[in-house]
Write a structure and sequence with these properties.
Blueprint lengths: L1 H16 L1 H6 L1 H4 L10 E2 L9 E4 L2 E4 L4 H10 L4 E4 L7 H6 L3 E4 L9 H13 L4 E4 L6 H12 L8 H8 L6 H8 L6 H6 L12 H22 L5 H17 L11 H26 L5 H25 L7
Parallel strand pairs: 3-6, 4-5, 4-6
Antiparallel strand pairs: 1-2, 2-3
Helix pairs in contact: 6-7, 7-8, 7-9, 11-12, 12-13, 13-14
C-alpha cells in the first residue's frame, strides 16, 4: 500500500513539473466519466483563452513576450501554428526551441485547401501543438476544432462544443459552418498533399492594415477602461492613419470593396476616427479631465466600434470570396 502511494505521489509530481507529460495527459481529462467531451481550460495570464482540445493540441490567443513563450516551452509545446494575419514572433519561438508555422485564414470560414494544410500540420509536425489566432476566441478555436475532426482525433459532434467553450461569436457564420461541417480526411489525402510550411506567410495588404487597426483599437479600448491618458493621442492618430490608408487604396482585395455600401462605411469610419483623433488631442492639451469631453470620446469610440462591426458583418464575416 505504501509502495503504491509513493508511486502515485511520484507520478503526480511528474505531471506538475514535466510539460510534455501535462500535454500528453490532457486527452483523458477532456472526457467526463460518462464520455461527454469538454475542452479543458489552461489557466494562464499569458496565453489568452487557452484550452486543451486534445492531448496534442492547445488552442488560445497570441503569445506576447518572452514569459508567454517560456510558458509554452514549459508545457512541452514543440510547434506553434498561427492562423492570424499578424506576423508571428518567429525569433522568440526559435529562442525557446519551438517552430512557428503561419497558416492564416479569415473570419468568413476556412477554405478546403487551408483546412487540409492545417490538418496536415497538426498531424505531421512535432507535437504538442499550440494553435492560436489573435484573441483565441474565433479563428483559432475554429481551426483547432475542424482540424482535430479532419485528422480523426475527435468526433465531428465535438467541434461545436469547442467553439461554444471558447466563446466563438455565432455571428461568424462561416467559421461556425467550417467547424460544423468538418469531417475526417483519409490518411491518403493528407499524405499526397504537398505543403511548404513557412514561419511567415505573405498576406494581402488589406489584411495587414486590418490587423494593425485591430491592434491599435485594442490599445484604445484598454485606455478607455483604465482612464484616458495624454499619450493616447498618438494611438488616435495612428488609427486614423490606418483608415486613411484603406481609403487611399482602391484595390483592397476584399469582398465587395468597390461596392457603394463598402465605400460609404469606409467614409464613415474615416470620419469617426478623425474625430476621435481630434478629441484625444484635446485630452492631451487639457489640464484636467473634462467630463463632457470624456463622454464625447466614449461616444466616438462606440461609433468606431459599430462601424467596424457593421462592415465586418457585411463584407468580412460571411464572405464567399475565400
Amino acid at each position: 500500500m505504501i509502495g503504491n502511494a509513493l508511486w502515485v505521489a511520484c507520478a503526480l509530481t511528474l505531471l506538475v513539473v514535466t510539460g510534455s507529460v501535462v500535454a500528453q495527459s490532457s486527452e483523458t481529462s477532456s472526457f467526463d466519466s460518462d464520455g461527454t467531451y469538454r475542452p479543458r481550460t489552461h489557466a494562464s495570464t499569458l496565453l489568452p483563452n487557452a484550452y486543451w482540445v486534445h492531448k496534442d493540441l492547445l488552442s488560445g490567443g497570441m503569445p506576447h513576450g518572452p514569459d508567454a513563450f517560456e510558458e509554452l516551452r514549459r508545457l512541452g509545446i514543440k510547434t506553434i501554428i498561427s492562423v492570424d494575419g499578424i506576423k508571428p514572433d518567429v525569433d522568440s519561438a526559435e529562442h525557446h526551441g519551438m517552430r512557428y508555422v503561419h497558416l492564416p485564414h479569415g473570419y468568413d470560414g476556412i477554405s478546403k485547401q487551408r483546412l487540409m494544410e492545417i490538418t496536415k500540420a497538426i498531424r505531421d509536425l512535432e507535437k504538442p501543438v499550440y494553435l492560436h489566432c489573435h484573441h483565441g476566441k474565433h479563428r483559432g478555436p475554429t481551426a483547432a476544432a475542424a482540424a482535430c475532426v479532419s485528422a480523426g482525433w475527435l468526433a465531428p459532434h465535438t467541434a461545436p462544443i469547442i467553439l461554444k467553450t471558447a466563446g466563438t461569436n455565432p455571428a461568424f457564420k462561416g467559421l461556425v459552418a467550417t467547424a460544423t461541417n468538418a469531417a475526417p480526411m483519409t490518411p491518403e489525402t493528407l499524405d499526397k498533399l504537398q505543403v511548404n510550411f513557412v514561419p511567415i506567410a505573405e498576406v494581402p495588404p488589406i489584411i495587414e492594415t486590418m490587423v494593425a487597426i485591430d491592434d491599435v483599437f485594442d490599445r484604445l479600448k484598454k485606455s478607455q477602461r483604465d482612464g484616458w491618458k495624454k499619450e493616447d493621442q498618438a494611438n488616435g492618430l495612428l488609427l486614423n492613419e490606418h483608415f486613411m490608408e484603406l481609403s487611399r487604396t482602391e484595390s483592397h482585395g476584399v469582398h465587395g470593396a468597390r461596392q457603394p455600401e463598402f465605400q460609404e462605411l469606409l467614409r464613415q469610419g474615416l470620419e469617426a476616427t478623425s474625430l476621435l483623433e481630434r478629441q484625444l488631442t484635446a485630452v492631451e492639451n487639457s489640464a484636467a479631465n473634462d467630463a463632457l469631453l470624456l463622454q464625447k470620446i466614449n461616444d466616438t469610440m462606440k461609433q468606431v466600434s459599430q462601424n467596424c462591426t457593421q462592415c465586418h458583418a457585411q463584407f468580412r464575416d460571411n464572405s464567399n470570396g475565400q
